[in-house]
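User: Predict the structure for this protein chain, please.
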Amino acid sequence: MSIRSRNRRNGPDGRFFIGITIVLILAAIMVTGCTSQTAVANQNVVVKPNDTVKVHYTAALASNGRPFESSLNGTPVEFVAGSGMVISGFDKAVIGMGIGENKTVMIPADQAYGPRIQSLVNVLPKDVVLATLSVKDPEAWNPKPGDSIRFVKPDGTIGYVYILTANETSITIDENHLLAGQDLLFTIRVVDIVKK
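Assistant: Here is the predicted structure, written as structure tokens:
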């Protein structure tokens, strides 16, 4: 049997193999093209004011870099960008980010929880604090430094005060947010954007 006759016998099988190969290559090119177009489309979708966004974040104090809060092991945080639902520095940081994009940003205290205001730290008689907070069992109440007390403000919103010191006659309370005066470091990843 000559080489020529072998090629003739295998000819149709060889053409079939080449045809299938070409079809598979074209299919791969088409799928890659579609995927690339989708990726490009997602890259063009960025957060704008009034978009509903879902993000994961990790927050740390800028002074030491140690994380104190994270959403990574839970549900992404959802909010309307630019609406004031989150601290202003965080709100500004997500504007212009795309789905899947990561960003680490330092947010100064004035764009986070504001400066620490010394006039919000007050020493009050214990009985005044008890009456103001409507403590149900004053005899059993034993405030300690570091405790937080939740209360309803005159406008109906919820507020917190933090106990700095306490003794039998007086309590030093702090109405500043615990993170007031702190620059914060956030690592943000946009999970989803819902356009309005």
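The beta strands are 52-61, 67-70, 77-80, 102-107, 121-125, 148-152, 158-166, 170-174, 184-194.
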